[in-house]
Fold these 3 entries.
Entry 1:
Amino acid sequence: MSRIGKLPVSLPSGVTVKVEDGNVVKVKGPLGELCQKVDPSIKLTIEDNEIKFTRPDDEPRSRSMHGLYRALIHNMVEGVSKGFEKKQELVGVGYRVDVQGQLLTFALGYSHDIQLLLPAEVKAEAAQVKKGENPVLILRSADKQLLGEVAAKIRSFRKPEPYKGKGIKFVGEQLRRKAGKTAGAK
């Protein structure tokens, strides 16, 4: 058995799960509603506020799908009950972000500002900046996959460079730094 796939997903209070149209799982909770199509070979059973997953055989594909869909459904349940959050730090002189509803405007040292329209499921907030600290962008959503895609898109506007570390990085991310030129070494 897959170590991940054999673990049941417990349902917190306020979260409901329905399996419709074959294998489409719909999870509804206080923070929203998410749906995911599950591979037909994986069987779901909902009993005693737990979702259990079973697979038909020990083929490599079945084993990988077993763990994958259990993890996806677990993330959906956690998302609609607690939600997910990603923090990104803008490191660089003059780097900033302005949030107006779903529209983000970045000043990242280019000749123009970069604008990004967020999906409706993702909420953004710019943390208060004290003098001498880098601006922080906080993204929240119930959908972990969508949140990760949006965060990766934002990071791609100005990836952190290895010499000074300037760019957009995740809070707590460890960057590989390189040594600069050594002047006058003979």
Entry 2:
Amino acid sequence: MSDMTLSDLSEKMRDIDIAMLSTHTDGGAIAGRPMSNNRQVDYDGDSYYFTWEKSRMVDDIKKDPKVALSFQGKKAFSVAVEGKAELSTDKKEFKEHWTPDLDDWFKDGIDTKGVVMIKIHASRIHYWDGEKEGEVKLKKH
């Protein structure tokens, strides 16, 4: 067992651009899709993603906000996150988490019609770092 802190873990997660975001979909199936975290992993365990409001993923989250994230880093470093997703269309919140790379996907930036931000509040984080593994305890939201 390893004693990585949330701060240590968050720093290592910043180096992983793509996470697999899994939702519960029709009939109890699990749907996963790659999402860029834009290096926005806060020390409190929250992470942020942008997508289209009229997407299957957003519909899934509206029905069941329990989601999972998986990150695969370098040298056998990986992270599994369980959490609750919250949807936002607040441009002020967008601005706090927007990065220039997002303009490639959303041509009018934070003013692009139909954009939604997914904020995931982690409730459980388990990590593996080579032979070491551990879990970071988080406060429930």
Entry 3:
Amino acid sequence: MTRLLGVDLGERRIGLAVGDTITGAIRPLATVGRRDAAGDLSTLGAVVREQDVAELVIGLPLHADGHEGEQAARTRAWAVAVTPTLGLPVAWRDERRTSVAAEARIGGPRRGRSGGAPSNAARRAWRGRVDQDAAVAILQRELDARQGLATLDEQRIAEVVR
């Protein structure tokens, strides 16, 4: 059994999900706050050990046309700073529209008690769920690709991303 850790890297948070290549089971794991590279490494290292992860699958934010932009470059730079110490293989997966799809699946944040706008805590919790769900989608795309279930467009993009 190979356990994969899906990573949805954002500017403020990292959404995490864990998956199994044998069963195909994927579950949201956590959303952690971003820190500096050393802090992110410490957090990921603890998760990798706790979950017995064998490989990282990092979402790569691509432009609509499939090309890498500034955010993709920042994501790759983060990976170069953080992942070598973990000593795990890294797979890159196109993450376009994963957060948008997660927001659609989850719905909006809950309204306040009196029916007003959501509290700051409710918004933060909702964002965390969206980040975790996006990490689940990243892992699902990776497992689909490994099983030959990816669409031709996804396969082409995966060739460019790697």
